[in-house]
């Protein structure tokens, strides 16, 4: 029986769409279908993201995946496509301990030609006069163990973009090349078959070469869709499809939350948004505070901040989350009791600030090394493990999926700008990604 498509991709988030675009662009004769259970592109965790990007990594793999993707996004926007991209920069504010343990990593990044500036406490205070840098012996700072600020590192080729615009850029390009997308269609299961079927009931047998031969779908698209290759880019839902056929998806879902605070009625918060001296758009850069990974993102066009925090301990992992994100909600108490006390300790202008909106999503965590992966297995190419940075590495990931499709796990991918990357560094059989050292 002939296949319905050469390639079926499950998932129309950033990873599925970037893969679809690069696959179609480089294999124009191939028929490609993307399937998603939501009604439009990027309605999963891509839509719930903070969508920040940075190239400030010590790991060679993180660096090349993000740096080439950022170059592609910058050049795409320069060519006239609005991706909502702003190079506002990343400002890591650090305690004495963090600064001294980061010194060699900062040097490594400078050696790798990453644009990075450093500030001591006085310089930081000059640029951010309201930032509280010394805490003395107050009861609250003792209780919260708020460290004094010693300095900061500033990543220049870093900033934010609009994940929906980026996703639409890929989906429009994919469709213009003849690719198809089926929305409101849930892939219920993968079809386990064999490379050379004998037509005997009960296949695949252990002595046969088993492979996924298609997907079983319900919704607007119905029935069995046969494909030569199935790409799994279902984000935190990869395990839902892979567990039943005995393949380890290597991801677990971890909830992350974002809270917005409006600056409209608050002149001191407005002044903070329009901080000068860091970038040429005169906006506060993305700030990471020295305590608990709390961060502050300024959006001057909305006159608001987005605020978040990293919580690891006591935040459960989920192996297979619910099919929609409807019940994945932000917790007001998390803002009030965890994030807010740290925030207003460093930036007193947030005193009494209440969140106007809040939402939550899931990081698709590769629990081994927090790095993404692409690997081939039984007729599938599986991409995932964005681990909180899938958008900033999205373009490179799509190119790697395409290279693995054309040349297999051992493909050497040409990333944007001409840099090459050995795809099997990101596989599991031959995994050799460099650990990220700069985790503060
Ligand atoms: C709060 C938060 C902040 C973040 N901040 C950043 C950041 O600053 N920078 C950054 O780079 N990354 C960030 N991330 C991570 C980033 O959002 C993800 O790495 C990225 O969006 C993952 O893309 P994806 O395509 O793998 O998954 P998704 O966007 O979740 O897409 C998966 C798609 O697969 C579909 N699907 C799944 N199963 C099926 C099925 N059986 N049938 C049909 N369709 C199916 C889903 O409907 C979904 O549309 C953040 C994430 C969160 C939650």
CATH architecture grouping of the largest domain? 3-Layer(bba) Sandwich
Sum up the overall morphology in one term. Answer: elongated
Counted by DSSP, the helix tally is: 10
CATH topology of the largest domain: FAD/NAD(P)-binding domain
- Low-confidence parts lasting 5 or more residues at pLDDT below 50? none
CATH C-level label of the largest domain = Alpha Beta
Can you give the helix content as a percent range? 25-40%
The percentage of residues in β strands lies in: 25-35%
Features:
single chain; binds flavin-adenine dinucleotide; FAD/NAD(P)-binding domain; D-Amino Acid Oxidase, Chain A, domain 2; 440 residues; eight-stranded mixed sheet; alpha+beta; nine-stranded mixed sheet
Structural overview:
The chain has helices at 14-26, 60-78, 96-111, 121-127, 139-144, 163-176, 238-242, 267-273, 332-346, 394-407, and strands at residues 5-10, 32-35, 52-53, 90-94, 116-120, 151-155, 159-160, 180-182, 185-194, 210-219, 223-232, 252-262, 286-288, 295-299, 304-308, 317-318, 357-365, 373-377, 380-384, 412-414, 420-422. It is 26% helix and 26% strand. The chain has two domains: 5-51 and 164-251 and 368-426, FAD/NAD(P)-binding domain (3-Layer(bba) Sandwich); 90-156 and 252-365, D-Amino Acid Oxidase, Chain A, domain 2 (2-Layer Sandwich), CATH 3.30.9.10. Helix 1 runs parallel beside helix 6 and helix 2 (60-78) packs across helix 10 (394-407). It is an alpha+beta fold and 440 residues long. Bound molecules: flavin-adenine dinucleotide.
């Amino acid at each position: 029986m002939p296949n319905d498509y050469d390639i079926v991709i499950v998932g129309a988030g950033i990873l599925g769409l970037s893969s679809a675009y690069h696959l179609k662009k480089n294999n124009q004769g191939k028929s490609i279908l993307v399937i998603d259970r939501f009604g439009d592109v990027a309605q999963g965790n891509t839509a719930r993201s903070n969508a920040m990007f940075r190239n400030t990594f010590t790991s060679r793999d993180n660096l090349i995946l993000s740096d080439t993707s950022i170059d592609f996004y910058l050049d795409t926007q320069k060519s006239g496509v609005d991706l909502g991209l702003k190079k506002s920069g990343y400002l890591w504010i650090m305690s004495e301990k963090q600064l001294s343990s980061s010194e060699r990593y900062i040097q490594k990044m400078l050696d790798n030609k990453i644009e990075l500036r450093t500030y001591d406490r006085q310089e930081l205070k000059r640029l951010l006069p309201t930032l509280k840098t010394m805490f003395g012996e107050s009861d609250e700072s003792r209780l919260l163990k708020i460290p004094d600020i010693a300095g900061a590192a500033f990543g220049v080729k870093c900033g934010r973009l609009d994940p929906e615009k980026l996703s639409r850029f890929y989906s429009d390009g994919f469709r213009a090349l003849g690719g198809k997308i089926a929305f409101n269609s849930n892939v219920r299961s993968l079809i386990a078959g064999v490379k050379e079927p004998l037509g005997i009931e009960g296949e695949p047998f252990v002595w046969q070469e088993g492979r996924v031969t298609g997907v079983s779908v319900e919704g607007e698209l119905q029935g069995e869709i046969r494909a030569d290759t199935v790409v799994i880019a279902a984000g935190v839902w990869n395990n839902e499809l892979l567990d039943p056929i005995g393949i380890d998806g290597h991801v677990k879902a971890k909830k992350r939350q974002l809270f917005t605070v409006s600056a409209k009625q608050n002149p001191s918060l407005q002044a903070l948004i329009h901080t000068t001296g860091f970038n040429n758009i005169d906006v506060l850069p993305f700030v990471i505070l020295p305590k608990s990974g709390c961060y502050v993102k300024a959006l001057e066009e909305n006159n608001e901040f987005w605020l978040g925090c990293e919580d690891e301990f006591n935040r459960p992992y989920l192996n297979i989350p619910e099919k929609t994100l409807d019940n994945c909600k932000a917790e007001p108490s998390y803002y009030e009791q965890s994030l807010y006390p740290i925030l207003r300790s460093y930036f007193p202008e947030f005193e009494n600030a209440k969140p106007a909106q809040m939402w939550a999503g899931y990081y698709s965590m590769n629990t081994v090394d927090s790095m993404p992966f692409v690997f081939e297995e039984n007729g599938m190419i599986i991409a995932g493990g964005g681990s909180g940075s899938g958008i900033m590495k999205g373009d490179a990931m799509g190119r790697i999926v395409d290279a693995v499709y054309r040349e297999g796990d051992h493909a050497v991918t040409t990333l944007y700008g001409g840099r090459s990357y050995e795809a099997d560094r990101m596989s599991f059989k031959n995994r050799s990604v460099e650990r990220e050292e700069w985790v503060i």
